[in-house]
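Your task
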Amino acid sequence: MNLIPIQTTDLTIGQPLPWDLFDQEHQSIQKRGYIFSTEDELKQLEGSSIFRMQNPVPEQTESNNNKFSFDDMLLKVGHKLQLKLSSQLRGSVEIKSNSYATTLIGYVQDSTLIVTMPASDQFVGEPYVEGDQVQVSLFSGNSVFNFTVFVDKIIKVPFKYLHLSFPKEIQGKNIRKSRRIKCSIQGSVVEKSIPVSIIDLSICGAGICSDLPLESLGTTITLSFAITVLDEEIPLTIKSTIRSAKELNKNGQKIICFGFEFIDIKSEQMHTLHHLIYQEIVEHPEKVV
């Protein structure tokens, strides 16, 4: 049974469940069609790992973008989006990056998307003017979505936010669970305080290099590291099992490379890793292994 994690925020009071719900042991929690009637019912699931069955995805959808409807993205208030200016020309304004993290405030169907102004530490001056063309990317479920809109209106009082035009064409891509990305992340093995370097990462595990031997194959350790998703640094501590090991000679120095499989991973940790991997696939496709 192929399961993907979900959050209690994906569940809506008063509406039938669109899927069967399972726990981490693949045991049924609720059946499709069940209706949560109160907030208390949902609160009972908070802190638990909740999963739904993953719909099978044809292999070719991984490399080809497909067209989706707005409803397919399952957007909710608070959803994180990435905005990228189609042009960086701003006269004397210094733009550190033309890609900014923002949050969905709401939308009016077929009329407007309302999003927060990116945090001021991401830029100097005003990053947008009305009429700008903006590329939007976001992650939802097991898919990454992209569409192009325009900045229709900039509101500054009582707080800054943007009205974007409503997307007309939405491209999406389903990503396999096994996709890995190249990376260079410093971490440590908690039990022995041994520093390690993570060289590739997926939601299933990681490739790790160390100057020191760790443990034998099959040993379970605790891996600690931090990743950056939408400009936010998120610490992770995950139980992992050593599945492979080999010695390499790099510039005359012996290093040991290990293959780790994540075990007992929490749903929010898996969700965070999903976001990082999808983010890298969108922004740095050359890093995909």
